[in-house]
Write a structure and sequence with these properties.
Homohexamer. The chain is an alpha/beta fold. Helix content is 33%, strand content 27%. It folds into two domains: 121 residues, 3-Layer(aba) Sandwich (Udp-n-acetylmuramoylalanyl-d-glutamate--2,6- Diaminopimelate Ligase, Chain: A, domain 1); 119 residues, NIF3 (NGG1p interacting factor 3)-like (Udp-n-acetylmuramoylalanyl-d-glutamate--2,6- Diaminopimelate Ligase, Chain: A, domain 1). The chain is globular and about 55 Å long.
Length: 267
Amino acid sequence: MKVFDLVKQFEKFAPKSIAVDGDPIGLQIGSLNQNVHKVMTTLDVRPEVVDEAINNHVDFIFSHHPLIFRPAKNLDLSIPQNEMYAKIIEHHITVYSAHTNLDNAINGMNDWLAERLKLTNTKGLVYQKEINNRKYFMGRIGELPTEMNVLDFANFCKKQFKVEGLRLISNTPNNSIKKVAVLGGDGGKFFNIAKNKGADVYVTGDVYYHVGHDILADKFSVVDPGHHIESICRPYLAKMFREWSNQFEWNIDVIESSLNTDPFTFI
């Protein structure tokens, strides 16, 4: 099969048109006409991930976060990012990234996060756009199977997302909660939408200091387990691609990156 075959099928699931305007999604490096034998799914494309792909004879990397989020100003190979680009090209690897189109997709990233939190009766959180009479939202809001207090829920998040630590923003850790909103990535700016839609607590990453103050002033609770929880995409994407490979007889191998690309360490 060719890169184009997988991309065409994926874009039926998460079309580019549902991405946030200006998001640098799609083909990053390589060719849609390249033959594919082995695909690797990953959250980030970092130098160590590229080395992992090379060592595993991968010829197609499919990532959530764009490889080229900020354009290169030159091709000076003493710069690690540029050296990584050169290595990708040298080893004939194609890289494709699905960012906010995967976030907004129905049964995509935020549904996977909601599933991990065992939420039921989920609905869209932050309205994005309507295409062909179908509304797309970033984030989800739903209900826990049983009530628990804010602190216990924060510990539940640690367990479910397998993180060593997280940030809890709450003046009421003993309050009982039932309705939960979740939005993967940098979603602090949407906390008021979560609150106004009736969430008792909101799960998102990268909450800024002053936003944290606003959350407390609004008597709301937010759990920030970090941006890296979106690495949940690796097994879900891999499963999807394996199913398509069987369905369309692509005969490709699909693996997941095994590396932790979270830049933060709790000490």
